[in-house]
């Protein structure tokens, strides 16, 4: 009985040492510019920006909400338009 009790934990230790778990890293892609982020937030298209997480996919039910929170913040619809205008420089200033 005691041999059986020790066999399973010993087997699990050997297996975990043989194949360690690797950390997940987000996919490598170029970060979006401030202009791209502001445009996506203004038009409610944050889900079109690069995915900064490795554990969420576009098929997940909360994907758009997670992307909007990450890029635009919690109160995107209540943010004053001048906040996004400050983030996007205009060439017409003179």
Task: Summarize this structure briefly.
The chain has helices at residues 2-18, 34-42, 63-72, 81-87. It is mainly α. The protein has a domain at 30-88.
Q: What can you see in these coordinates?
A:
The chain has a domain at 30-88. The N and C termini lie far apart (86 Å). 7% of the residues are buried. It has four helices and no strands. The chain has 94 residues and is an all-alpha fold. The protein has helices at 2-18, 34-42, 63-72, 81-87.
Helix content: 40-55%
Shape, please?
elongated
Estimated share of beta-strand residues: under 5%
Radius of gyration: 23 Å
How many distinct beta strands?
0
Keywords:
94 residues; mainly alpha; 4 helices; 46% helix; 0% strand
Topology, please?
Blueprint: H1 2-18, H2 34-42, H3 63-72, H4 81-87
């Amino acid at each position: 009985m005691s041999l059986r009790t020790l066999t399973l934990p010993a087997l699990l230790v050997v297996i975990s040492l043989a194949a360690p778990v690797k950390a997940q890293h987000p996919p490598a892609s170029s970060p979006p510019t401030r202009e791209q982020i502001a445009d996506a937030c203004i038009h409610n298209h944050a889900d079109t920006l690069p995915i900064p997480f490795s554990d969420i996919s576009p098929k997940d039910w909360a994907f758009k909400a997670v992307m909007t929170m990450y890029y635009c913040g919690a109160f995107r619809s209540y943010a004053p338009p001048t906040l996004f205008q400050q983030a996007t420089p205009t060439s017409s200033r003179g």
